[in-house]
Specification:
205 residues, alpha+beta, Aminopeptidase, eight-stranded mixed sheet, globular
């Protein structure tokens, strides 16, 4: 596979009104996703556009962007939502063609793009849940003060840690598995992995 990491600056961001332009392999390569590729496209078809006063308009709470090359071929995509109350940005998924993974340039492109959007939409905080925090910390993200909590009950009545817990009790997620990062817009800009964020995208529903 040819290394095109040095050519990632030739790609440009385009906001999508339909996910049909995203190649399926870019969704398939997303690690730790808890949805099917088919469900991803179905969800985006519903949430990219919303009814407006003059017909369909881009959803202000669910944003889908593509990274396209000079021939308008999609080489990556970004999906984030904006919380309607706090106005915080939550990065759900960022996936880039493997040819552009090297040297951390893809994460830098993401960071720069997110900062521009934050300034335009007057967003103060952007969160990204990642299994690889060191990659992101090099490009303006810092570890959030918030702690991710998770609850999952299996069919045998046990939580996913294999133990019985009192009803309604939650357990702390392994801090080594997933880390919540917050973007510092003032920070300056690794290997990149396509990643899935485990925060529900309720703002775009």
């Amino acid at each position: 596979m040819t290394d095109k990491s040095e050519q990632i600056d030739e790609l440009r961001w385009v906001r999508l009104f339909n996910p049909i332009h995203i190649p399926k392999y870019l969704v398939e390569q997303v690690r730790d996703r808890d949805y099917t590729v088919e469900d991803f496209f179905k969800y985006q078809e519903i949430n990219c556009m919303v009814p407006g006063k003059e017909g369909q308009t881009l959803n202000p709470f669910s944003h889908l962007y593509a990274l396209v090359d000079p021939d308008n071929v999609v080489k990556g995509f970004l999906w984030f939502v904006v919380d309607a109350l706090s106005k915080d940005m939550i990065i759900n998924t960022f996936s880039v063609d493997k040819a552009y993974w090297g040297k951390g340039k893809a994460v830098q492109r993401l960071s720069d793009h997110v900062k521009e959007i934050m300034k335009k939409l007057k967003i103060k905080k952007a969160f990204w849940l990642t299994n690889y925090p060191k990659h992101s910390e090099r490009h303006g993200f810092r570890r959030s003060k918030s702690v991710l909590m998770e609850y999952e009950e299996t069919s045998d009545g046990k939580d996913d840690d294999g133990q019985h817990h009192p009803q309604g009790q939650h357990k702390h997620v392994d801090p080594g598995a997933t880390t919540a990062l917050q973007l510092d817009p003032s920070a300056a800009g690794s290997g990149l992995h396509a990643e899935h964020v485990g925060i529900p995208a309720t703002a775009g529903a």
